[in-house]
Amino acid sequence: MNDILPPDSATWEWLEALVRDLMATYGYRNIRTPIVEPTGLFVRGLGEVTDIVEKEMYSFEDRLNGEHLTLRPEATAGVVRAVAEHSLLYEGGKRLYYMGPMFRHERPQRGRYRQFHQIGAEALGFAGAEVDAELILMAHTLWRRLGLEGVRLELNSLGEPHERKAHREALIAYLEAHASQLDEDALRRLHSNPLRILDTKNPTMQELVNQAPRLMDYLGERSAAHFHQVQRILDAAGVEWTVNPRLVRGMDYYNLTVFEFVTDRLGSQGTICGGGRYDYLIEQIGGKAAPAVGWALGVERVLELVREHAKTPPPPVPDVYAVVPDADSLPRVMQVLQQLRQRGIRVQMHASAGGEGMGSMKSQFKKADASGARVALVFGADELARDAVVVKQLRDGAGVQAEHSLADLSVWVSSLQSQDLT
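-> structure tokens emitted (422 positions)
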């Protein structure tokens, strides 16, 4: 787990603001769920034999009542729990999004931490393929707004439960016939979750899984039509995609469309965003049956790509830095600075480090320059006696200064906002 410190945190804020704007463009509204949920929610929702439940969850027993609790390893189950608990679908479907920390006890690697952050979007109560495509288009739009290149889209369909059952039987028979080639993890999953074997990263098993029965060949007419409609919409929007028949995702709740956005720039674990349809999860955790689809992206991984391959905005800096030579003048100075802030001016005031005076003018101007501010406001005793302030430029035309009357605050505030600082 790691800290996020300034100025790096400014990039996080920039991404979050961009995402909020994007979500509003598509009609998605924010939802915030607890970080801690009952352990059973994730066991039921994600699947008891998934890596997340078996190996990665931070779970504990509440000392007061013995309840088994877990730090959320992902957010979809909690969102679905909240939707069911509060009957949010009573009046129709909902488009929701979230941001926040998740927790998994996995091996730290590039762009992955045990406390990591996700941004996700969930559309609940909508059964049509157009909503699958809408979510994919939304993520694709995000990459364009971030200036990311080299992110490819992979699609697959997991069909419906009865189709997966037929494929599962064929897959188990195939794998049992080649049991000598399976590694320990595959043997363990063979009868509990054989579909996950197709997603193995073991290089010695790649040829075996490449020749395995494909779920795509077991899709019925409706499932195939749903998948085809998603593809048609993406084609019409000019979004490139490829079908990856081995794409199964890591949770058991998916059906029909699944997808991932992948890059080669982050090593072997190149997925930065993934999701799919989960039409049975709401009923599975105790709500009224309703279709749903969603995705989540890893914030750390996306920001790593942004820093390396796209332009990031500069960290925010104050418009002005207030130089205060005399501590006795602070009440008057801070009154003026508050008026500036109320008018939208970003102000950083010099403050004493040790509580014994405000420091020399030289040291204050040095800090003013380091702050990135465009101008310094110098509240000298003589100027304040005349009800005035000196505005000194720190960037363009550095050193140029002019005196302004505090009585006519609106005039020089306008000059600050228009960058006409003289």
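The first helix runs from residue 8 to 26.
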